[in-house]
Amino acid sequence: MASNLTYNLQGDKLSIKFSGELTLYTITTFHKQLQTISFNEVSLIALDLHELVYLDTAAAIFLIKLEEEYNTKSKKTRILCFNEKILSTLKLVKMQRTITNSETKTNDTKGLFLKSSIIRINKFFYGFLLFMEFFGRVFMTQSDHLESLNNIRYKEIAFELNESAIKAIGIVALTSFLIGVVVAYQSAYQLKLYGANIFIVDMLGISILRELAPLITAIVIAGRSGSAFTAQIGAMKITEELDAMKTMGFDPFTFLVIPKIIALMIAMPILIFIADIMGIFGGMIVSHIDLGISYELFLDRFREVVDVRHFFIGIIKGPFFAFLIASIGIYRGLIVKNDTQSIGLNTTKSVVESIFAVIVCDALFSIALTNLGI
Amino acid sequence: MSIISVRDIHTQFDEKIVHKGLNLDINEGEIYGLLGPSGCGKTTLLREMVLLQEFTHGNITILDKSLSNISQVNAQSLRRDWGVLFQAGALFSSLSIEENIALPLVEYTDLSLAMINEIVKFKINLVGLKSTAAKLYPSQISGGMKKKAGLARALAMDPKLLFLDEPTSGLDPISAREFDALILKLRDMLGLTVVMVSHDLRSIYDTLDRVAIIDEMKIAYEGTLGDVTTSSSDFVKTFFK
To answer: Do residues B8 and B16 lie in contact, with contact meaning Cβ atoms separated by under 8 Å?
Structure first.
């Protein structure tokens, strides 16, 4: 049934008449209509609901807000109605509104800038402390492990090694091969200008072995295994599997955390080694095609100019990167809250934070090693 | 003889006070219920009892071991003396049902594999699971079966104490009654002490010997169900009317 709004201005009296069904579909248009009325000379307003057949709760809230609005403008407002049902709807809404109003008033201290920023700093500091606690427990459990060889969980480590290393070989190899191709292709163009074709070997050798292969591997692993750790442990937390482990006396650190960290620390240098091979191989192909350097010449020159220390520097970064990626991924998994959204959020954060940590760590290595003259 | 005693427990999360001085005693061999309106801290108390959460103040003693400042060794030995069934079973999703049940046995004992298999089969039968379910993974079985499997895992080490968090929630009425009967049967056969959080009125009347009702941060009533209506708590009046 259609609803209608008519109003009637007589001297200082305004009567607004609603008819038909007043529901949430019509109140917006009515509200706009009512705003066009000029009230300046009006002092008495009657909201006439006599011809109203049905009123839903949204419309009731609208009417009551209208009444409040007019009252604050110091107009006397009355709701005229005899229909029992409509009156009871209005009464219900009024009652709920007074309850919620008194509730919200007590919460008014929120939103103070200083207070909210202090709370935020406090939260950040607390989060940092929690991460330090996590680190502490990792080292404690680690040292327990080292006390006796029997404590090492070989089966779990082997499983994780397969999951996060063996299965990652393909993607790591492909990515570093492509990086090798791209770097060689870009630099070939520049080197050709100077006629310094053969120096591509020096360039590729040092940049790939020392920086690119470890970084690319770390980034791929952070995106692949780090996020998997977070999601897996987060899901275990939501399904109470972690709690179940604790009540059965299985420390999640020995069963889940340490095997993952150790496995990744073993896997990373191997993956970097594979990335080295594939990156150089990609560069070699481009040098052959683009610069006419034969494979034999490339390898001869490689042996001559690229020192073995560059290779070892790349490899040695592996365990450090692995430790950062695994511990950030696992820590993020452990602090997942009891909702599914939290898994998504923490997985994102774990990837971003571990890539960031890897790059910072790489920069530290770079500075330290350069200063040491290595 | 009291097997668990809770003394003056206070719990606070940030600014929210959950418990304000709880006292209760659970005797050996009884099925004890923690009841109360939702959000009153029943599950929190249960989690405090099984060392998953710390209380702010007070003390809980379980099997003569005090939980405040408990040593790692004592905590570990307590954990072998109890079994916990979580609301959704909390089976390890990467292991099959029989592997789940076998896990505590594999980790804590030096039993042979054949012996462990025997024990697992026995526990599976005991809780009324079909033996064909043994090879399935948690994602392949129904909610009721998960609870039964969780119970079998909780019973794997023959604990003295069994903690159940809403054992019948999410089950259809028939499975829920079966589960109640199972709990009663297990208590009689194995002499277990059972502590459970429950909302299911039928299950409460059918199984519980004594209850504690937590309302407004305190114990509103502790005792048998017969006298429960003497309590003046609003929750009791509406729940048991």
So the answer is: no
**DSSP single-letter state for residue A9:** E
Mean pLDDT of A260-286: 94
Nearest CA in chain A to B46: A247
Subunit contact A247:B84, Cβ cutoff 8 A: yes
Determine whether the interchain pair A244/B90 forms a contact, defined as Cβ–Cβ distance below 8 Å: yes
Q: How far is B227 from chain A (nearest CA, A)?
A: 34
Preferred mutation among A247, A255, A256 to probe B, highest tally of B CBs within 10 A: A247
Q: What is the largest CA-CA distance in chain A?
A: 105
Please tell me whether the interface predicted TM-score (ipTM) of this complex is above 0.90.
no
> What residues have CB less than 8 Å from B126, skipping those under 6 apart?
B152, B155, B186
Q: For position A364, what pLDDT does the model report?
A: 94
How confident is the model at residue A110, as a pLDDT? 56
CB contact under 8 A, B84 and A244: yes
Q: Name residues whose C-beta falls within 8 Å of residue B121's C-beta, 6 or more positions apart in sequence.
A: B131, B134
Q: What single letter denotes the amino acid at residue A306? A: V
Query: Whole-model pTM?
Result: 0.72
3-state secondary structure of B196: strand
Per-residue pLDDT, A83: 82
A134-172 b/e with 16+ CB inside 10 Å = b? beebbeebeeebeeeeeeebeebbeebbebbbeebeeeb
Portion 79-118 of B in contact with A at CB < 8 A:
79-80, 82, 84, 86-88, 90-93, 103-104, 107-108
Q: What is the mean pLDDT of residues A250-272?
A: 90
Q: Say whether pLDDT at A102 is over 70.
A: no
Any residues with CB less than 8 A from the CB of B62 and at least 6 apart, and which? B3, B4, B49, B78, B82, B161
Taking contacts as CB-CB distances below 8 angstroms, the residues of chain B near A250 are 103, 107
DSSP, residue by residue, A247-291 = HTT--HIIIIIHHHHHHHHHHHHHHHHHHHHHHHHHHHHHIIIII
Residue-wise pLDDT for A299-353, tens only, equals 999 999 888 999 999 999 999 999 999 999 999 999 998 788 889 999 999 999 9
- DSSP 8-state secondary structure symbol assigned to residue B166: S
Q: Do A239 and B84 make contact, defined as CB atoms within 8 angstroms? A: no
Beta carbons of B52 and B29 less than 8 angstroms apart: no
Residue A246 to residue A244: CA distance in whole angstroms? 5
Q: Which residues of chain B are within 8 Å of residue A235 when distances are taken between CB atoms?
A: 93
Residue pair B45/B214 in contact by the 8 Å Cβ criterion: yes
Interacting residues of B74 by C-beta distance below 8 A, sequence separation 6+: B65
- Which residues of chain B neighbour A236 with C-beta distances below 8 Å? 93
All residues of chain A having their beta carbon less than 8 Å from the beta carbon of residue B75 are 249
| Angstrom distance (rounded) from CA A21 to CA A56 | 8
- DSSP type of residue B40: S
Tell me, rounded to whole angstroms, the distance of Cα A23 from its chain centroid.
Answer: 41
Distance from CA of A249 to the nearest CA of B (A): 5
Query: Rounded distance, CA B58 to CA B80, Å?
Result: 24
